[in-house]
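Protein folding task:
====================
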Amino acid sequence: MKSITLRFYEELNDFLHPVKRKTPFQYQFYGNPSVKDVIESCGVPHTEIDLIIANGNSVGFEYRVEDGDYISVYPEFESIDINPIQKLRPAPLRTPAFILDVHLGTLARYLRMCGFDSIYRNDYTDVEIIELSVKEKRCILTRDVGILKKNKVLRGYWIRNQLPVKQLEEVIERFDLAKMIKPFSLCIECNAKLNKIEKEKIENLLPPKVKKIHTEFYRCPNCKKIYWKGTHYKSMTNLIRLIQNKEKE
């Protein structure tokens, strides 16, 4: 039986048993496993990790742990002064794009509301989610840690909160998206880019009260849904402002 010392930092502790959080602990093993296998056996998916330090040197996921190693594991944005640094995560996407699992349908709508490209279907399989994530360079958002441990997954994030509004706040903070919000630029229903449309072209499709009060309209070229700045627009605007103000605090 061999033994190493592990220490996880910041939000990576969310995946650990309480007694192992924010403190070094012993990990015992047989054979010659990779550090990736060791880390994920502790419950931490590789997509959450940005840096691994073994005995003072940065290493990749393929590093084979040895008896007596001291290994520190860091999430993205953790600041330390060690060189050379071997970054493990892919370069951040200049244009954020997400794919969400079956548990996050409401979050997908909220992200679209904020202008973030977010695809979702309640019948996607894990295999389909991973394939689309890789093919279209999308970050997987999920409540299922298991999918993030798949070797093919390059970008992914485990959503901690259960309430959709809190989930939206979490994603915007985690990916530093507050300044990139473009409200109501995407269709909330199908994720397509909205087009402005003249009232005269859709008058026969509008409720009488809406036709009388509103003059500015947008239409989805895909599902044909029509949008205007009604009471729902105001409530969503207030939510976005609340999130943006929190980011400034």
The mean pLDDT is 90.
